[in-house]
Amino acid sequence: MDRTSYPTPHNKASGGDFARTVLMPGDPLRSEYIARTFLKNAVLVNNVRGIQGYTGEYKGKRVSVMASGMGTPTTAIYSHELFNFYGVENIIRVGSTGSIRENLKLGDIVLAMGASTDSAYGNQFNIGTCSAVASYPLLEKAVNIARKNGENLTIGNIYTSDTFYMQDESIYRKLRAMIILCIDMETCGLYINAARAGKQALTMLTVSDIQKPERNN
Question: Is 2 helix (H, G, I), strand (E, B) or coil?
Fold first, then answer.
């Protein structure tokens, strides 16, 4: 159900300020870069806590871009408000990730079909294990467009962690054994919120760093 009273605690935008589809990088400066580089007539609609949100046009279609901050808690807050208060139907996370597979190199693109996690975010729904999976229509569309354009994608399960600096690095070996492709800190919360709101979400990641196998315990 969409809210009719604005602003929300974390968003100063008014009703209708956001498009039905929102691109969501983690970094606010990346949000600004996307808006200034790819959107026509981009207008800043939110800047609470420096989390920049813009709405403009891309090839004649209205599109918004807003940052999520870092980690599941902030991503869950912003995606919840966009889905439930601002009438947003689709959120596509466009972020970075750390590869834990030898075949994934810097600059490679990963589509997250699902997100295993160490986060407790899904526990609040009291259904046991809450599977965090992409919305198939968005995933299918992204794959078809990429193949049409000759883009090389890797599609599979990723790992959303609340921890950036892992104290027990044996986790990387365990994740590789489960065919996990890479690690981020946001996707699980986004996917769960989309499912709860009856909306759609997809994560598209660019490999920005690689976890070296020799660091394993």
Answer: coil
Reference 64, options 33, 26, 24; nearest CA is: 24
Catalytic residue among 2, 27, 118, 209: 209
95-217, CATH topology level:
Rossmann fold (3.40.50)
CB count, 10 Å around CB of 58? 16
Nearest Cα neighbor of 142 from 197, 93, 215, 75 is 93
> Could you write out the DSSP letters of every residue in 103-143?
T--TT-EEEEEEEEES--GGGGG-SSS---B--HHHHHHHH
Q: How far apart are CA 94 and CA 73, in angstroms?
A: 17
Q: What is the pLDDT of residues 24-59, one digit of tens each?
A: 999 999 999 999 999 999 999 998 898 999 999 999
- Is 184 annotated in the active site? no
The alpha carbon torsion through 39, 40, 41, 44 (nearest 10 deg) reads 0
The pTM for the full model equals 0.92
* Lookup: tokens for 123: 């526990």
* Phi, psi (rounded to 5 degrees) for 25: -80, 165
Length of the chain: 217
Q: 1-88: which CATH architecture? A: 3-Layer(aba) Sandwich (3.40)
> Are 154 and 181 in contact, with CB atoms under 8 Å apart?
yes
Question: C-alpha distances in angstroms, 109 versus 60, 182, 201, 204, 207?
Answer: 26, 11, 17, 7, 6
Q: Which of 176, 142, 136 is nearest to 159 (CA)?
A: 176
